[in-house]
Amino acid sequence: MKLAVFDFDSTLMDGETIDFLAKELGFEAEVAQITERAMAGELDFFDSLVERVALLKGLEVNKVNSICQNLPLINGAKEAIESLKSQGFRVVCFSGGFRNATEPICASLEIDADFSNYLHEKDGILTGLVGGEMMFSDSKGKMLKRLQSLLGVSKENTLVVGDGANDISMFKHAGVSVAFCAKPILKEAATDIVDVKDLREVAKIAGEKL
Questions:
Q1: Which of 7, 114, 163, 192 is catalytic?
Q2: CA–CA distance from 30 to each of 19, 23, 72, 182 (Å)?
């Protein structure tokens, strides 16, 4: 068995989910600036996530879900997933973002499973709190090791794809790691670099190396 793990924001989806949500409350510029620094490795991921989600307090969950179900995909996402599955991969998504987004999008792409965080809500309104499996800078690496053990997949048969600093931990446990339109800090940790916004390039790399 082979395993492919994709980041979500700016990898499967064209943009950052939290930026789309913050726009509804007028905090888009402030949140985007924090996101940019976190993905560049300049801020602690946990601290930056908590700070950004706090700004979403008061947003209606129905509005959150409506936005998340209509996020734009990266070019070639569907074709890349189909190609990887035809090559025998189980395909999974790890996201430091939110299940409101990963669940519907990954279902539409027929991705096998998604792991992300939960926006806490009360009476249909976001409280500004967040929790989940992907809260820390090393979360993706730890989850990848658990999945490899569960599925019986070796490091050599694992492909990972991401764009930011919080993807570094999973790059350490994969035979092929693709920095996709990525920050410099992630490119340094990658076996392969794709600088065009087309995920079909990732499927080609998988076909050549795995």
A1: 7
A2: 9, 10, 21, 21
Q: Do the strands 192-194 and 176-180 form a parallel or antiparallel pair, or are they unpaired? A: parallel
Total domains in the chain come to: 1
pTM of the model: 0.96
Active site residue 9: yes
Other residues' Cβ atoms within 10 Å of the Cβ of residue 81: 24
Q: What is the pLDDT of residues 97-135, one digit of tens each?
A: 999 999 999 999 999 999 999 999 999 999 999 999 999
Burial of 124 from C-beta contacts in 10 A (0-12 / 13-18 / 19+): exposed
Task: Express each pLDDT in 159-169 by its tens digit.
Answer: 999 999 999 99
Mark whether 47 is an active-site residue. Answer: no
CATH number of the domain encompassing residue 176: 3.40.50.1000
Domain extent for 65 = 2-209
